[in-house]
Amino acid sequence: MAGIALLAKQMGYKVTGSDLNVYPPMSTQLEEAGIKLIEGYGATQLDSPPDEVVVGNVMTRGHDVIERMLDEQYTLISGPQWLYQHILKNRWVLAVSGTHGKTSTSSMLAHILDEAGLNPGFLIGGIPNDFDVSARIGSGPFFVIEADEYDTAFFDKRSKFMHYHPRTLIISNVEFDHADIFRDLKDIQRQFHHLVKLIPQEGKIIFNGDDENISNILQQGSWSNMESFGSSEQCYWHLNDFDKHKRPFKFSLKNDKQYDCILNQIGKYNAMNAISAIAAARHAGVTVDQSMQALENFKGVKRRLENKGEHGGVTVYDDFAHHPTEIQCTLEAFKEHNDKERMIVVFEPRSNTMRMGVHAGELKKALSLATELFVYGSEDLEWSLEQELEGLSCRIFSDINQIVEGLLQTLRPDDNVLLLSNGGFDGLCAKLIARLDHG
């Protein structure tokens, strides 16, 4: 929604918005764009009647502003609908979908197209360091969008990506997530197959050939050109014997010509993200060599294993990982490149799915690489942190300030501390850095 607000502002609209507990970096870019942010969902927001109300999927019946909006019959539209009608309708949309990796892959793809001189538009769920904004209109035909499977609005329960009508589609992986709106994995796969049905014949689906859940989706029927990527030799884009200790990584096209790709981001999962972005860019006319040259200077994304610098001898990293698969991939990749240093992990189980306990049984394995583990246990968890994390070197806190104090007592020079949360973590990152800087 912050990205949509930025796009509307760039188009010349006067834009205001409301939310609760907005946190950096999104709040910062809204302020810098001159977009007024109203805290809360009070009905008085509509005292100066807007021409149109764009409704995000966090809003539900019962909020005062929603009830007044309906009572007084304001023109309303969902964010994805507004985006399609005002921006995407006549563009070549390159959509990046999947349970994990959407933000990083979208950022890579937008950067590649930009470096190729195509000036793409984009809407990304994070802030790429190469652009410092999460959204822009662009001037060319191409528009890169992070295509989320979450529902659209309280009055439209289709997945958001159903509104985007992409010509190029990446499906990076599919797992069960968003248990607050999906019953099971098949429910999610059904939405992805609806998306597959919308890709035109001359369009292209670029999919992870190692992912059985994606294969099951495509076996239900597909009518577009397709290219697979992955570790299997049968994949059209083949990641060749990835070695965590060797850079560049190597991949081949149709098991023929081999390429060496230099990427500053670590981990096999980022190599896979890069290959899918290269494949999508090629569909838009960018050569493989052009894409690889662009990726050499790709700076990553804020809050994706973002190095916040060394403070008091301790290096602090901020990361958005919240699903067990994301957590495990992040920690494994970090450990591979920092195997002689301690890794202190601070985790907040914040997502709706995590609070419900759907992935609780997978957390212990995902977090087991941490030298020391600090967990923020909020009151609304429907499961026991103590029980699920038993056996790990773990401390559980219910107060952010207590976490800071505990970290200060635990951290030693040359330690790495990784903060994992898909929210603002109540300002933990800034609080910790401030205390470390002042001894």
Explain the layout of strands and helices:
Elements: H1 2-10, E1 16-19, H2 26-32, E2 36-39, E3 53-55, H3 64-71, E4 76-78, H4 79-88, E5 92-97, H5 102-115, E6 121-123, E7 135-136, E8 142-146, E9 151-153, E10 156-159, E11 168-171, H6 185-197, E12 204-208, H7 212-218, E13 225-230, E14 237-239, E15 249-253, E16 257-261, H8 268-283, H9 288-295, E17 306-311, E18 314-319, H10 324-337, E19 343-347, H11 352-356, H12 360-367, E20 372-376, H13 385-388, E21 394-397, H14 400-410, E22 416-420, H15 428-437
Helix pairs in contact: 5-8, 5-9, 6-7, 8-9, 10-12, 14-15
Structure characterization notes:
By secondary structure, the protein is an alpha/beta fold. Helix content is 33%, strand content 22%. It is built from 15 helices and 22 strands. A ten-stranded mixed beta sheet has the order 7-6-8-5-11-12-13-14-15-16. It has a six-stranded mixed beta sheet with strand order 17-18-22-19-20-21, with helices on one face. Strands 1-2 form a two-stranded parallel ribbon. The two termini are 39 Å apart. 43% of the residues are buried. The model has no long low-confidence stretch (mean pLDDT 91).
What are the defining features of this structure?
439 residues; six-stranded mixed β-sheet; 15 helices
Briefly summarize what is shown.
The chain is of the alpha/beta class. The chain has helices spanning 2-10, 26-32, 64-71, 79-88, 102-115, 185-197, 212-218, 268-283, 288-295, 324-337, 352-356, 360-367, 385-388, 400-410, 428-437; strands at residues 16-19, 36-39, 53-55, 76-78, 92-97, 121-123, 135-136, 142-146, 151-153, 156-159, 168-171, 204-208, 225-230, 237-239, 249-253, 257-261, 306-311, 314-319, 343-347, 372-376, 394-397, 416-420.
